[in-house]
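Task: encode each sequence below as structure tokens.

Item 1
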Amino acid sequence: MDPKQPLMLLPGLLCDDALWQYQLSALAEFAVPQVADLTGADLIAELAAQLLDSAPPRFSLAGLSMGGYVALEIMRQAPERVLRLALIDTQARDDTVEVRRRRKGLIALAGRGRFKGVTPRLLPQLLHPDHLDGPLAAIVMEMAERIGQEGFVQQQQAILGRIDSRPSLPAISVPTLVLCGEADILTPPAIAAEMAGAIPDASLVIVPGAGHLAPLEQPEAVNRAMIDWLRDSL
């Protein structure tokens, strides 16, 4: 296998290529990374199909949060095209009733022109407490501004419509990394362990000092884990 394999990096809700800024250079020795745009449709299945249309014939795949939902859909639509899979700060479960209610409320607010992206009030859900007052907070809020109101609504609607991916996890047969920030509130380590336990021979990595955005918060630890993953079976 060519060690410079294509690598598709899928960002999370209200995130863009800045989420993966530290991985783009660190992983270049082992892969040709490309960050996908997840604002082109309001269905997870449609986003997956669009990415497959533009992707190389075979590629490695890493997704964070919403990007993980799209990655799991790609594994259902075209598992033969994926060389390896990384699920980062994400989950296979669908939303609880309460989370769905909150998402619909945010969509309604955005529809009334009250989209504010990620505000300081929401940052504790995304970042480890040590990072709330530093430059990472500004990066997160700037990403949300770039995605904007229309992109936010599309993404939330896509997330609302996703299915429970747990039944399909045992069918995943490629080298799989499941990684989670130790302080991830939205998709905590127990959820990551559930996924890793259901995927045959998956590796589970819990990253200290990180919340929901581990690639930004602890890039060195995430890079080490992803390099080991990319080199697996080369």
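Item 2
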Amino acid sequence: MSDFVIETNGLSRRFRKSWAVSDVSLSVPRGSVFGFLGMNGAGKTTTIKMLLGLLEPSAGKASVLGMDPRGRGVEIRRKTGYVAENQKMYGWMTVQQLCNFVKPFYPTWNDTLAADLVRRFQLDPKAKLRTLSAGQNAKVALTLALAHEPELLVLDDPTSGLDAVVRRDFLESIVSLIHEEGRTVFFSSHIIHEVERVADWIGVIHEGTLKTVQPLDELKARVKRIRLVFPEGCPDSLNVDGLLSLRRNGREALLTVEGFCQATESALAAYSPQSVEVLDLSLEDIFVELVEGGESVVA
């Protein structure tokens, strides 16, 4: 059994003349919660559709649960729980009727687990879906995704459009189930602080290009903001490996560096700053630097 549930190598998809996803290579460790971050239109959903065999790649390859989505998409989807953004369900059905409708598609469907999830999520089995709130509908979708005991759970912006309280409740439900079942979760979202609460691995995609893939703890340890103050004025240039952004204002320089280490501090010390302060960043700060980093000067 592979240590990775998902592996891609150069996965790409072109729509007419533009590349929606270009050369994405990543590995998702078994048992991890992998946060796949990107702004709307970054290529998250296109990537997921290729992984599930719903969309043919233009180039590259993928392996999901040890299978190639191009020829075994149906098998992959039977072993995967999938919650889509704004998932559409039959509003005239009750919660129980929808479970009964979906059940035949999955040989591993567990009626006892489905009933337990409905109770846990405080859903009324007799309620019609059109009468449920957005948060309750999201929990129905999660019930359908988990009731067949999938090896992999794929969540494509599942909390989009939900209010903050409902989003928190939804994510806490996911975290609880993850710890109980030990499943692998591929969680796509543009709501970064929420991903930070549940993920242990992070991938960042921007304009179809993968910017980074690494454990969350390592990412936070490697990306730092450094505040330098000089006796007179900032040097015209500050050359340091892994520089993501540089902002200068009079005697002060604010740098964000990827791959921060002792060598970074040594390189900066050569410019003889008056003071050096190394600052930790949130995942949201790191995301912004990875996709929008650059240089600016304030007079």
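Check on item 2: The longest strand covers residues 4-15. Residues 164-181 form the longest helix (18 residues).
End of task.
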